[in-house]
Automatic annotation (TrEMBL):
Spans through the membrane: 6-24, 31-52, 72-95, 115-136, 142-167, 320-340
Membrane topology, as annotated: Multi-pass membrane protein
Name of the protein: LMBR1-like membrane protein
GO cellular component, one term: membrane
InterPro entries, per database record: GPCR-associated_LMBR1, LMBR1-like_membr_prot
Family that this chain belongs to: Belongs to the LIMR family.
Localization: Membrane
Lineage, top ranks: Eukaryota, Viridiplantae, Streptophyta, Embryophyta, Tracheophyta
Keyword DNA repair on entry: no
């Protein structure tokens, strides 16, 4: 069991760190990075817990209720996710979104916004519960079971929608991205769409910055709305203006980053197509239009390796990956469709587990 933990734990942590590095902005506070990282780790902990739980269930005798440490790990993951979802993350999110000038005021604004949200949601839920009790649909002692059923139903329905999207979209996107012509069209559309968003975000940021200096000056190209001048000089109005400025700045740099990412990918794809078409004249070497040329024997070797990877192998690997993921999607759908006891096991994963259930490493 510990061998599996030594493999799966660093793998999961690596996935979390890579995702944080990809998505996090340059000025995100460390406590936010830690909170988001731990939240994602709790979500991805199923990679560690599910295989270990399956082996624990198989290796124990029938009707054995004690799962040892695995039950403690499940409880830790569940309650961590619960507290993060309903308390910690909303509080930090509201704190970071607040435009107040002191920590106490920002914390107070976050608590007030979250309490207002929970009060509205709780009132709606309480009204529906009282209505069901009045209509004799449920009894008062069955409220806890009803709440648990609603929670599980919400989780299952949401999971089913997300799973259904992933099962079809991920293999399809892998297959489409392997086609250079299709990918060029997609990138052209994304660049044009992001350029419009970037222009709007730039104008919004310009207006917010000008308001901070001189509310009566209109920047060239800016578009002031009828509510843009509704800022007084009191602390509350200044906090609202500061919040607007911060949001506008973050939105601008986010769209700028996405725009540059799409542009660089489009330029690299254009280079890949050109290098593949001119492979005979260039000696099967990759020549980049926006990177200095490599020199020396090692440089020539690296150019050849880059050509083989970007122009030949990557395209084929993407298609192979799409086929593998499509097969996995079909296997998952078949397993879900035949989940009810029918005497015939059509789940590929169940068949694989049962065929090697005496070997811990193979099961996991």
């Amino acid at each position: 069991m510990w061998v599996f933990y030594l493999i799966s734990l660093p793998l999961t942590l690596g996935m979390v760190l890579m995702t944080l590095r990809y998505f996090a902005g340059p000025e995100v506070p460390r406590y936010v990075l830690f909170t988001v990282g731990y939240t994602w780790f709790c979500s991805l902990s199923i990679i560690i817990l599910v295989p270990a739980d399956i082996w624990t269930t198989i290796s124990n005798p029938p009707h054995h209720n004690e799962n040892g440490g695995i039950s403690v790990l499940w409880s830790l993951s569940y309650w961590s996710t619960f507290l993060l979802t309903w308390a910690v993350v909303p509080l930090i999110q509201g704190f970071e979104d607040a435009g107040d000038f002191t920590v106490t005021e920002r914390l107070r604004t976050s608590v007030h916004a979250n309490l207002l949200f929970y009060l509205i949601v709780g009132s709606i839920g309480l009204f529906g519960l009282i209505l069901l009790i009045t209509m004799h649909k449920i009894r008062s002692r069955g409220v806890l079971g009803f709440a648990m059923a609603c929670s599980n139903t919400f989780g299952l329905v949401t999971g089913a929608f997300l799973l259904g999207f992933g099962l079809s979209e991920i293999p399809k996107s892998c297959w489409k991205n392997a086609d250079w012509t299709t990918r060029q069209k997609v990138l052209s559309h994304k660049i044009a769409k992001m350029a419009v968003k970037l222009d709007d975000a730039h104008q919004d940021l310009s207006n917010a910055i000008v308001f901070k200096e001189d509310p009566f000056f209109k920047p060239q190209g800016g578009r002031l709305g009828e509510n843009d001048m509704d800022y007084d000089t009191d602390e509350k109005s200044m906090a609202t203006l500061r919040r607007h400025l911060r949001r506008a700045r973050e939105e601008y740099y986010r769209y700028k980053s996405e725009y540059m990412t799409y542009v660089m990918e489009a330029l690299e794809l254009e280079d890949t197509i050109k290098n593949y078409d001119r492979r005979s004249s260039t000696g099967w070497k990759y020549i980049s239009s926006f990177r200095p040329a490599r020199t020396g024997k090692i440089g020539a070797l690296l150019d050849t390796v880059e050509f083989v990877w970007k122009c030949i192998l990557r395209k084929q690997i993407q298609k192979l990956l799409a086929i593998i993921l499509g097969t996995m999607s079909a296997a998952i759908l078949l397993a879900e469709a035949t989940l009810l006891p029918s005497g015939v096991d059509l789940s590929l994963f169940s068949i694989l587990v049962n065929s090697v259930k005496s070997e811990e490493v193979f099961v996991q």
